[in-house]
Amino acid sequence: MSEPLVQVDGLTRRFDISKPWLNRVLERQSRQFLTANADVSFSIKKGETFALVGESGSGKSTIAKMIVGLLAPSAGHIRFDGQEMDFASGADMRALRRRFQMIFQDPFASLNPRWRVRDIVAEPIVTFGLLQGSEITREVDRLLEVVGLSATDAAKFPHEFSGGQRQRIAIARALSSKPEFIVCDEPTSALDVSVQAQILNLMRDLQDEFGLTYLLISHDLSVVRHMANCIGVLYLGRLVEVADAKRLFLEPQHPYTRMLLDAVPDLALSGRRRKPVLGEIPNPIDPPSGCAFHPRCPMAADICTAETPLPRVTPTGQAACHFAGQVGEVA
Amino acid sequence: MSTETQSRFARVWDSDIMWSFRHSPVAIVAGVVVALIALAAIFAPWIAPTNPYDPSQLNLMDGFTPPMEPNAFTGNSYILGTDNQGRDVLSTILYGTRISLFVGISAVLFAMLLGITAGLIAGYRGGWVDGLLMRIADVQLSFPSILIALLIFGVARGLIPPAYRETMAIWVLIVAIGLSDWVQFARVVRGATMVEKSKEYVQAARVVGAHPAKILIKHILPNVMGPVLVIGTIGLALAIIAEATLSFLGVGVPPTQPSLGTLIRIGQQYLFSGEWWILLFPSIALLALALSVNLLGDWLRDALNPRLR
Amino acid sequence: MTGGDMQEPLLTVRDLVVEFPMRRGTLRALDQVSFDIAPGEVLGMVGESGAGKSLTGASIIGLLEPPGRIAGGEIRLRGERIDNLPPEAMRRIRGRRIGMVFQDPLTSLNPLYTVAQQLIQTIRTHMDVSEAEARKRAVALLDRVGIPAAARRIDDYPHHFSGGMRQRVVIALALCAEPELVIADEPTTALDVSVQAQIIDVLKEICAERGASVMLITHDMGVIAETADRVAVLYAGRVAEIGPVRDVIQHARHPYTRGLMGAIPTLEQTSDRLVQIPGAMPRLNAIPKGCAFNPRCEQVFERCYSERPSLRQAAPNHQVACWLTEEGSA
């Protein structure tokens, strides 16, 4: 149970955001790059849920896209069940591709509006050539029932469904190639809370039933708290903290994690005052020197502006902070 | 089975697009005019009083008969009169519309095929492929399309042996108009493709490793067809006019198989000598056809635009 | 009608009905919505997408998008009806007496004008002050909403500001004519968590300072919990429950509100499964007879299918539209 299914090592992605060549020459500008992710490493154990949390510009979706091959990494490696993922080699990847899937954020954009539900759910089956003819129909009907829809829905078009039902269809599609690993990119952030609860519960049920491994991308700490075994916190493309889910919320090791926790609204009206956070997320094109968090950090010292902190081992996991371990408990 | 087809008909009849059609008087009138002209053109051999392509049916003595009047020599009477060669104007219009519509539709389909292919590839591939295709399009757009059609027509005539020129003329015309008109399809499809390809349903297909050709044809193409149909309809009106213009300039279809443009060219030679009907009736037919198709295109654009609904 | 201890309300909405005539029949998007906002009070309006919370805001400020129209009920601002005013009179109330903050700051700010131009113009449209005086007020206001170096930054264009700063500018713009009521429609939804708290605090403090009431429209119960005095829960265009925030959150009486509260994952909770309400909110063309929540309610009984419950007093200041409450307290 505890060997890693997915290992990410030194994953880095730069985007070339330079102006076109002619403009660069005329305006005497050099090429410009945006580093969406720098040196991100983590591993996901079989049957567990690893969550990546971060605010906008943290590069969490970029990591998801690199893992499923929608984007090529600029540097670094992704290993799946011990095998190196190399999306350039078509034939070798085919067998690997069947074993992972993705669920997207926007259920209104993730289903082709011109396709019937039957064809949408069957697409991975057909692409991998897993089943033929009437077997496909039977499998689609079964999958729709697994995700809480009915077989009669197969003949309908996506626009006939609500947001939550569409997300169920997307989940049925993801399950149809019988994957072991599913990347869930903000799977509920477009949904209303009552529907979000249905989808999160469904995801957990499916995990138990099929032994799935999840990578959950989210900006919502409460959702992550509810779903994850292990959590990685991203800030401006770097992993600032990785920790066991339960302990992260009790003993944050990085000041940014601490700040995020403080910013979560207090729904229980326990009197915990949400602490307004200093400043805003810097522009990722021109990130601060040293530790990218230092302009907003209450603990920042000289070393923070000069040196980028390397991840160090903490009691709960690891944190990339010069003062890791001195952050203190949540009040 | 019959309930199935009936419900399908009911569904189409009740769809948003049909509802919009039923509530637009302009669209209904334009649609009826187009349908009548198209039917008349298709069934021309059965409804036309004479066959203007058949020299044996022609009598030069019938030439220049005014509408609704008996000919001074033969006593024959024609509803819309006859032209210089004694051809019945009504029949030549019916047959001419046939050619105009055939050339127009074929040219638009050809332009669509080229434009959609180029647009899909440019929009999906991006990078230098996109740059190259769109620069070609830009260059072409900086010339009037009729000039390009003339150029292509000229080159083609130079390449085709004289013996085949007459029979090939109509195909050359289609290629010339189509080549001069693909750019707008390519641009619209490219833009729509760039929007669609970033949508998550395309990413979902890429995650399972679907082939790019399959993604383009089965996923993206159906979702970019809306705007293509709109410019296709408006493009049809333009293609019909382009054909008429080329034929009017004398580089289109041969006078033995006159299209509406050819008829107008013949007619304008006699306008000032008093034989007005040879020019007027084909012109009205061309105007009615082009205007109705254009109005249909305008309606379709509004009906498919969710913001105007 | 409502809590007896309340002073004369600032805003009164009574039996508001908003309809959209569509080709397949008229859709009733708001159905007899009633509530009050007292002077200085923050009323939260919460509901899922399509519940009608934004429509309520749009109806109050007279910005319903056609073909939507007010088909019944009335809206009163300090006792004076404003739902049937001619557009010109409504325009004078908007901005002057009712300020607005929307989800996307870019819809409230004109990208072609500097922040100074927009603020000064708004101030001078509604108040008889000189250009210099208006500018002084604008700078003070920007400073108050937390724009650093306000005197210099006021001459920047909206795109020079970050998302959070832009929303601060919008708050300044909404408050610059000293309105009595601010309608904030999802003011923090587009912002990151770490910035949300800042904006909520600014909005809350500055309105309290000026005695402006706030109608805070959001889908986020957490924001309501921290900000609002009272909360109205909307479901399928109807008010399901309305009462003091603490009561509604801790002792929700409507089964929908209870389900909603259980469905929200929190940092504190430890259970493995979230409470889930089965199904989804009905579409406007398929709202069931009787109580709109009846297909999803676990405690449904006969009466819920035949008769629509109206708002009844369940506790002081706390009203619920549910037959259970009615029977329980009667």
General description of the model:
The complex is a heterotrimer of chains A (about 325), B (about 300) and C (about 325). Chain A contains eleven helices and twelve strands. Chain A is of the alpha/beta class. Chain A has a domain of about 220 residues: Rossmann fold (3-Layer(aba) Sandwich), CATH 3.40.50.300. In chain A, helix 4 runs parallel beside helix 6 and helix 6 runs parallel beside helix 7. The longest helix of chain A has 18 residues. In chain B, about 75% of the residues lie in helices and about 0% in strands. Chain B has 13 helices and no strands. In chain B, helix 5 packs antiparallel against helix 11 and helix 5 runs parallel beside helix 13. The N terminus of chain B is likely disordered. In chain C, the strands form two sheets. An eight-stranded mixed beta sheet of chain C has the order 6-7-8-3-9-10-12-11, sandwiched between helices. Chain C has a four-stranded antiparallel beta sheet with strand order 2-1-4-5, covered by helices on one side. The N terminus of chain C is likely disordered. Helix content of chain C is about 35%, strand content about 25%. In chain C, helix 4 packs across helix 5, helix 5 crosses helix 7 and helix 7 runs parallel beside helix 8. Chain C is built from 13 helices and twelve strands. Chain C has about 325 residues and is of the alpha/beta class. Chains A and B meet through helix 3, strand 6 and helix 4 of A and helix 10 and helix 11 of B.
Total beta strand runs of chain C: 12
Helix content of chain C: 25-40%
The SSE string of chain C, one letter per element, is EEEHEEHEHHHHHEHEHEEHHHEEH
From the spread of the alpha carbons, the general shape of chain C counts as globular
Secondary structure: number of strands of chain B:
0
Strand content of chain B: under 5%
Distance between the termini of chain C: 17 Å
Number of discrete helical segments of chain C: 13
Q: How much is the average pLDDT of chain C? A: 89
Order of helices and strands of chain B: HHHHHHHHHHHHH
The number of helices of chain B is 13
Question: What is the CATH superfamily label of chain B?
Answer: MetI-like
Show the largest interface: A-C, 41 and 46 residues
- Measured between the Cα atoms of the first and last residue of chain B, the distance is 35 Å
The CATH architecture of chain B: Orthogonal Bundle
Mean pLDDT score of chain B, rounded? 86
